[in-house]
Each structure stands twice: as structure tokens, then as C-alpha cells.
């Protein structure tokens, strides 16, 4: 399996580590740390050395109670950093946005993947941009709009809900001309889901992966609040072990891409997971 972007065909023989680089003042875990170009470049260099396969650059926080920023402000935040990263490093860059205007500006600056947390719900023209520039496209599951996505009444069957949503997002992307090999899916851990539903999606991830076998599955659990709940209300910076454990479970169950803050620790954890998985495949 490969994931086709506008600049390369990325092999999925091993799990890809998509490293979070937030250039926002208010992200739940690292808001404000990498707001300048110099700060972002230093962090990019570190996480590349730590083993990141893709940098996911975002200029708008999607944490609970976050405020929406304008497209112009988001462009102002992300485009100089995308340009600087692409100029200095040979690494795939993803733009984490749900606005087509931001996506197009970031792609013109060098981004080759668009990571849309709304799965084309907020702005379906993102699919038009992905088709036009032949970028990779991540379609994540959530419900509601930007202001209400963390306040949704729980659905009864979360696996069925995610499956149906994926089908709608994929169909919409294809209508705009996005090819199957450009698309990755994300179950959206922590978005529009209860604590129990986050656990269910991780435990039953293999069922969704089997259903959508031609698409690589991305999972992002890093430092999220459901881990804090398990770990006696640990704050985001104290959720490393939970993040690693949940990433390991996701990959064991078939995830091909993990979105993380702690790159070096994740890379080392997944080496062990994949060594054991490969042994089991050989034994089979």
C-alpha cells in the first residue's frame, strides 16, 4: 500500500509517524511554544531527527472551547512556516486545516497533504484543492460544526456512525476528483465521542480497517483527555505512557499512521510493536 501525495508516493510498509507542529497560541498541549518561524524550525529539526515521517503543521486549535480564527490569520500563521520547513528539510508536510483557502495557500507553499478534521463537513472545497494539486487527503470523523463538535449528544452505535461518515466523505472526495490512493481515514479520537466510545474505537479498530481496507487508517490519541481520565486526571504533559500505549494498540489493530507529539518515544515503541507483528505474520 502507498499513500500518494503531490510530491511523492509514501510507502506504508511500516507505520508512519505524523508529528504535530502546532503554530497556535492556544493548543491544548503545546500552544504558543512554536509560534515563531525560528521556534518552529528548531522543533521541526528535533522531531525529524527523532524519526518523524511527516510534519503536520496547524494554525487553528481544535481543543474544546477554542475560538475559530479567520482564514487570513491562519494563513499568516502557517504559510511562512510551511515555506521555511520545505526549504530546509526533505520531509513530507501536511497542513492541518478545515478551510480550503488555507489549504490552497499552504499547498502552494509546499505542503503535500491536507489533514481535514471535518472530513469535508466544514468546507467541501478542500476536496477540490486536493484533486487540483493531487495532494494526500486525510478525512477525519466528527459530528456537528466547529463550535459544537465537542458538545454532540452521543450516538448509540459509534462504529456504524464512523463507517457511514467515512463513506459519505469518501464519496464527496471522489466527486471532486480525488483518487483513492490520495485518501487516508481518521476515526477522530476525542471528537464528538464519549470516553467509552474512544476506547471502543481503539479496541475495535480492526473492524473499520477491514471495511475500508484500501485506505490507510490514521489514529491520533496523543495526550488526549480520555487518557487523562484513565491516568487519574493527569494533565496533557503527563500522558506520555498513555499516549504510547494507545498508539501501540492502534498499530497492533492495523493503523498505518499515528499522529503524535512525542516522536522519539513513539518511534521506539512502534519498532517493538512491528517486530512482534512481523513475527506473528511469519508464523502464520
What radius of gyration results from the CA coordinates? 17 Å
Number of strands: 10
User: What is the mean pLDDT?
Assistant: 92
Largest sheet: 8 strands, parallel, barrel
Low-confidence stretches: 26-32
What structural class should be given to the helix and strand makeup?
alpha/beta
Order of helical and strand elements = EEEHEHEHEHEHEHHEHHEH
Work out the helicity level. Answer: 40-55%
CATH class placement: Alpha Beta
Question: If helices are DSSP runs of H or I spanning 4 or more residues, what is the number of helices?
Answer: 10
Number of domains: 1
The main sheet orders its strands as: 3-4-5-6-7-8-9-10
CATH homologous superfamily (4th level) name: Dihydropteroate synthase-like
What is the CATH architecture annotation?
A: Alpha-Beta Barrel
By CATH, the topology is: TIM Barrel
User: Looking at the structure, what is the overall shape?
Assistant: globular
Distance between the termini: 20 Å
| Strand proportion | 15-25%
Report on this model:
There is one protein chain. The protein has 284 residues and is an alpha/beta fold. It has helices spanning 37-49, 71-88, 100-109, 125-133, 158-175, 195-203, 205-211, 225-230, 240-252, 263-283; strands at residues 2-4, 9-11, 16-22, 54-58, 92-96, 113-116, 136-140, 183-186, 217-219, 257-260. An 8-stranded parallel barrel has the order 3-4-5-6-7-8-9-10, surrounded by 7 helices. The model is unreliable at 26-32 (pLDDT under 50).
Amino acid at each position: 500500500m502507498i499513500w500518494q501525495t503531490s510530491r511523492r508516493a509514501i510507502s506504508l510498509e511500516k507505520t508512519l509517524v505524523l508529528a504535530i507542529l502546532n503554530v497556535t497560541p492556544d493548543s491544548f498541549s503545546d500552544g504558543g511554544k512554536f509560534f515563531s518561524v525560528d521556534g518552529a524550525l528548531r522543533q521541526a529539526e528535533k522531531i525529524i531527527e527523532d524519526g518523524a515521517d511527516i510534519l503536520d503543521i496547524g494554525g487553528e486549535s481544535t481543543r474544546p472551547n477554542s475560538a475559530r480564527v479567520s482564514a487570513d490569520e491562519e494563513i499568516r500563521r502557517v504559510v511562512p512556516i510551511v515555506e521555511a520547513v520545505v526549504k530546509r528539510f526533505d520531509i513530507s508536510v501536511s497542513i492541518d486545516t478545515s478551510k480550503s483557502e488555507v489549504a490552497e495557500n499552504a499547498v502552494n507553499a509546499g505542503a503535500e497533504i491536507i489533514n481535514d478534521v471535518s472530513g469535508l463537513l466544514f468546507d467541501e472545497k478542500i476536496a477540490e484543492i486536493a484533486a487540483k494539486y493531487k495532494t494526500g487527503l486525510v478525512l477525519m470523523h466528527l459530528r456537528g460544526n466547529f463550535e459544537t463538535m465537542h458538545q454532540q449528544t452521543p450516538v448509540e452505535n459509534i462504529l456504524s456512525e464512523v463507517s457511514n461518515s467515512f463513506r459519505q466523505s469518501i464519496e464527496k472526495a471522489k466527486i471532486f476528483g480525488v483518487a483513492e490512493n490520495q485518501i487516508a481515514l481518521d476515526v477522530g479520537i476525542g471528537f464528538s465521542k464519549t470516553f467509552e466510545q474512544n476506547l471502543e474505537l481503539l479496541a475495535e479498530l480492526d473492524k473499520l480497517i477491514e471495511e475500508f481496507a484500501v485506505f490507510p487508517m490514521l489514529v491520533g490519541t496523543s495526550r488526549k483527555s480520555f487518557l487523562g481520565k484513565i491516568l487519574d486526571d493527569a494533565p496533557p504533559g503527563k500522558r506520555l505512557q498513555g499516549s504510547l500505549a494507545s498508539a501501540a494498540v492502534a498499530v497492533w489493530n492495523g493503523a498505518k499512521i499515528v499522529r503524535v507529539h512525542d516522536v522519539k518515544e513513539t518511534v521506539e515503541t512502534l519498532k517493538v510493536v512491528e517486530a512482534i507483528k512481523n513475527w506473528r505474520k511469519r508464523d502464520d
